[in-house]
Amino acid sequence: MRLWRSGIGLFASTLAACGDGVSPKRIHAVTFSREAVQVTVPGSVSSAELLGLHVDAEPGASTEVQWTSSDTIAAPIDAAGLLHACAAASSVTITAIAKADTTKRASARVILSEPAAGMAGITRITDMQTGLPVDASALRGGVFFHYFVSGRWAECSTLALVEFAVVPVSGSNPVKSARTGFPGRGDFVGTAGWLTRLVENGRYVLALRLLIPGRVVPVPLAAVPAEIRN
Q1: Which residues of 78-102 are buried (b: 16+ CB within 10 A; e: fewer)?
Q2: Domain encompassing residue 34
Q3: pLDDT single digits (tens) 8-19
Q4: Are residues 101 and 127 in the same domain?
Q5: Can you tell me the distance from the alpha carbon of 96 to that of 35, in angstroms, rounded to the nearest whole number?
Q6: Which entry of 7, 76, 151, 222 is 20 to 30 Å from 56 by CA?
């Protein structure tokens, strides 16, 4: 009898222990309230707010999501969901994946428009000796090019470089270029000197570009037609 009762007690306690397991809280769905949005380059924005993220989950379940971008160069996105608009793109897919259940996810399309006006520019050209303004259509002797780039472009990559280049109209290889990294926070203001006599007379383009590591094609920021007349 004692053994029988002891066996029943052991069996009952085993059943009780098995019934104490807690099932994981479920994620029902991950959704966006917007299927497609447009963002102006450059800039940074919360993907959750931009796309209207909603995670439908049981009480107590984690609503954290993992963010991915189909174009990590034009539109990189960090772990917190901050999307950086770095270059114009017709369509970039942004996806949010529930960390508690990776089968639950949502995707939306982001269109990155051309850079906003005033984000970069060649402000003036001056003569090296006199300091007087020089017209881009009549470059001669030694000149200084003055330009600026908004610090918002630095959000795309801390390793991005600002390039000022003089490119022949009939070619793609610069005859003059200067590259500089962003100085930190704030706008970039630069100056590049050039002796125009080192190249042939003719028509050129003064190009201001952003070089982002991993991106083969530079991001165009500003361009001014010019002509050398020595």
Answers
A1: eeebebbbbbebeebebbbbbebbe
A2: 23-113
A3: 444 444 444 444
A4: no
A5: 13
A6: 76
